[in-house]
């Protein structure tokens, strides 16, 4: 079994997943990581289903409707949500909508300079569109102001500052935290005698509507290394894995979207196993995220904001 | 913006500062561990991050390598949520390219590039929140990041903006003051020698007033230097404590 594991490790490419930040590993290091994972012991001492320490802080950027910063090990993500007025889409006249944009900044790695980060950015944005296309994720009808005429459009902008592995998970956590933090001003539609509508903004700047993020899913990425799979892989572990499965899980353990990425192939039993693991891990992730977000909010406006200075 | 008084009769600006007063500056070095050097600065509500990679081998075509000195490559990017109105493209537009070139010009004057021939130094600046004085914040953040990366420089590069309203020179303009349309001067200074690395001015200004505005900007840049110096010393002190010296 040892020799088969080593052979599959040698067949791997050194680059971790296409256009992401690449890390160079020697054969000995790869074998070390693969063997350790088979024994449920990873390089930093975690088990296969343990996340690294996640730091979440909301309301980091002040001229947005909502923002959040997430640090997952060496991965650093900043999400800003801006609410703007727009016209509803033709096929959904009673709903607002979300627009995602992912900017892979050159801060993460010099390869992302200029247009280098566009490919990865589009891939992540498309994944976010897919997991939010589910009707139950966000209550889009609460974003409607007047049907067929005005609605709120939430522009969710993700800024990737540092890449330390497991981007999708960190980004989904940050998006959820930013949507939790989003405050949309309350507006009233006044209709006068001629029938023309006027939109009036409330005088009180704190009078806003909040989004319910109970059903917003989080992505759990599982990387197949050898015969086992790991949650929250670092860059080095991603370089050793043949294939990964991205599963988007809600807090009730409902799977909303699933995708297999990577060059290698997986057999169906491992995919089912990975889905079960993701449901288990996802529920725990959601409960801890909810408790942190509510605890942060209970500190109120007097909370000391740390941001990048801490 | 008629009706908005940039300088009141008692000499107070829109945000309550005096004419020559800087906004509150907070900075931190070593924000990211994977980059060679990084720094974060907050000047009032303007927040900028700078990351430095290098000196390393030239990426892309080898023909760009200079035989006697290092190539300095800068990119300026501002997040889509940084301005009041959402920006469509974070970088690649004309203004970002121009800022990148200005940053490059500024740092080629300060970095001792002849110590690293045929190599490249990358400086990436990211603006997270723009409230006026973005060029100055970027230069200050980039100086700290270059120092954090251990790249030798001739001197600190400290930058500040200045304007002119009602016969008084204002230092460190905020977005409201910049949008009012008066003359704006951006200055990057090497404080020890007093040499100017970059000087840029928009709008019409009578030459009699130029010296006063320049003086205000230089004084503000020297104040920035005092603050940045303190930040660097604090960082070195913390790092040496961690090393156990």
From TrEMBL, chain A:
Pfam families: RNase_PH, RNase_PH_C. It comes from Myotis myotis (Greater mouse-eared bat). Residues 51-185, 215-280 form the Exoribonuclease phosphorolytic domain. PANTHER family: EXOSOME COMPLEX COMPONENT RRP42, EXOSOME COMPLEX EXONUCLEASE RIBOSOMAL RNA PROCESSING PROTEIN. The lineage of its organism: Eukaryota, Metazoa, Chordata, Craniata, Vertebrata. This is Exosome component 7. GO terms for molecular function: mRNA 3'-UTR AU-rich region binding. GO terms for cellular component: cytoplasmic exosome (RNase complex); nuclear exosome (RNase complex); nucleolus. Belongs to the RNase PH family. Keywords: Acetylation, Cytoplasm, Exosome, Nucleus, RNA-binding, rRNA processing. GO terms for biological process: exonucleolytic trimming to generate mature 3'-end of 5.8S rRNA from tricistronic rRNA transcript (SSU-rRNA, 5.8S rRNA, LSU-rRNA); nuclear mRNA surveillance; nuclear polyadenylation-dependent rRNA catabolic process; rRNA catabolic process; TRAMP-dependent tRNA surveillance pathway; U1 snRNA 3'-end processing; U4 snRNA 3'-end processing; U5 snRNA 3'-end processing. It is found in: Cytoplasm; Nucleus, Nucleolus. Component of the RNA exosome core complex (Exo-9), composed of EXOSC1, EXOSC2, EXOSC3, EXOSC4, EXOSC5, EXOSC6, EXOSC7, EXOSC8 and EXOSC9; within the complex interacts with EXOSC2 and EXOSC4. The catalytically inactive RNA exosome core complex (Exo-9) associates with the catalytic subunit EXOSC10/RRP6. Exo-9 may associate with DIS3 to form the nucleolar exosome complex, or DIS3L to form the cytoplasmic exosome complex. Exo-9 is formed by a hexameric base ring consisting of the heterodimers EXOSC4-EXOSC9, EXOSC5-EXOSC8 and EXOSC6-EXOSC7, and a cap ring consisting of EXOSC1, EXOSC2 and EXOSC3.
UniProtKB/TrEMBL annotation, chain B:
One of its GO terms (cellular component) is nucleolus. Gene3D superfamilies: GHMP Kinase, N-terminal domain. The keyword RNA-binding applies. One of its GO terms (biological process) is poly(A)-dependent snoRNA 3'-end processing. This is Exosome complex component RRP41. It comes from Myotis myotis (Greater mouse-eared bat). Component of the RNA exosome core complex (Exo-9), composed of EXOSC1, EXOSC2, EXOSC3, EXOSC4, EXOSC5, EXOSC6, EXOSC7, EXOSC8 and EXOSC9; within the complex interacts with EXOSC2, EXOSC7 and EXOSC9. The catalytically inactive RNA exosome core complex (Exo-9) associates with the catalytic subunit EXOSC10/RRP6. Exo-9 may associate with DIS3 to form the nucleolar exosome complex, or DIS3L to form the cytoplasmic exosome complex. Pfam families: RNase_PH, RNase_PH_C. Belongs to the RNase PH family. Keywords: Acetylation, Cytoplasm, Exosome, Nucleus, RNA-binding, rRNA processing. It comes from the Eukaryota. GO terms for molecular function: RNA binding. It is found in: Cytoplasm; Nucleus, Nucleolus; Nucleus, Nucleoplasm. The keyword Acetylation applies. PANTHER family: EXOSOME COMPLEX COMPONENT, EXOSOME COMPLEX COMPONENT RRP41.
């Amino acid at each position: 079994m040892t020799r088969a594991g080593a052979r599959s490790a040698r067949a791997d490419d050194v680059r971790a997943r296409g256009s992401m930040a690449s890390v160079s590993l020697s054969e000995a290091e790869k074998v070390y990581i693969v063997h350790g994972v088979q024994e449920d012991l990873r390089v930093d001492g975690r088990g296969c289903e343990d996340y690294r320490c996640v730091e979440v802080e909301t309301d980091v950027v002040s001229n947005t409707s909502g923002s959040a910063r997430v640090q997952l090990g060496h991965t650093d993500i900043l999400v800003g949500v801006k609410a703007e007025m727009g016209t509803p889409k033709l096929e959904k006249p009673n709903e607002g909508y979300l627009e995602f944009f992912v900017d892979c900044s050159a801060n993460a790695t010099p390869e992302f300079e200029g247009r280098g980060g566009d490919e990865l950015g589009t891939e992540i944005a498309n994944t976010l569109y897919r997991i939010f296309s589910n009707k139950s994720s966000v209550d889009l009808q609460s974003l409607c102001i007047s049907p067929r005429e005005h609605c709120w459009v939430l522009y969710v902008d993700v800024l990737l500052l540092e890449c330390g592995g497991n981007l999708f998970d960190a980004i989904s956590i940050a998006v959820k935290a930013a949507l939790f933090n989003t405050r949309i001003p309350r507006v009233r539609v006044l209709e006068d005698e001629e029938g023309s509508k006027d939109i009036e903004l409330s005088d009180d700047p704190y009078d806003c509507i909040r989004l319910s993020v109970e059903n917003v899913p989080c992505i759990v990425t599982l990387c197949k290394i050898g015969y086992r799979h790991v949650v929250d892989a670092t860059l080095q572990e991603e370089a050793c894995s043949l294939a990964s499965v991205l599963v988007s899980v809600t807090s009730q353990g409902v799977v909303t979207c699933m995708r297999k990425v990577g060059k290698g192939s997986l057999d169906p039993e491992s995919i089912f196993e990975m889905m079960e693991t993701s449901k288990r891990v996802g529920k725990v992730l959601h409960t801890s995220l909810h408790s942190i977000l509510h605890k942060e909010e209970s500190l109120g406006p007097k909370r000391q904001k740390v941001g990048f200075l801490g | 913006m008629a009706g908005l008084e940039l300088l009141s009769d008692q000499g107070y600006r829109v945000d309550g500062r005096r004419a020559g007063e800087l906004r509150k500056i907070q900075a931190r070095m070593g924000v990211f561990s994977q980059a060679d050097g990084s720094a974060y600065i907050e000047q009032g509500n303007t927040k900028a991050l700078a990351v430095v990679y290098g000196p390393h081998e030239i990426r892309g075509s080898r023909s760009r390598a200079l035989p006697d000195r290092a190539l300095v490559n800068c990119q300026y990017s501002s997040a889509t949520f940084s301005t009041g109105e959402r920006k469509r493209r974070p970088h690649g537009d004309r203004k970002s390219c121009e800022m990148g070139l200005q940053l490059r010009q500024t740092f080629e004057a300060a970095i001792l590039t002849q110590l690293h021939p045929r190599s490249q130094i990358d400086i990436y600046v990211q603006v997270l929140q723009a409230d006026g004085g973005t060029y100055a914040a970027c230069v200050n953040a980039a100086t700290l990041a270059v120092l954090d990366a251990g790249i030798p420089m001739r001197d600190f590069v400290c930058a500040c903006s200045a304007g002119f309203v009602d016969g008084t020179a204002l230092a460190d303009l905020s977005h409201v003051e910049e949008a009012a349309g008066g003359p704006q001067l951006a200055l990057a200074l090497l404080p020890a020698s007093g040499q100017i690395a970059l000087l840029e001015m928009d709008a019409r200004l009578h030459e009699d007033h130029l010296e006063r505005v320049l003086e205000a900007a230089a004084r503000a840049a020297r104040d920035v230097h005092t603050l940045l110096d303190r930040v660097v010393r604090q960082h070195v002190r913390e790092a040496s404590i961690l090393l156990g010296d």
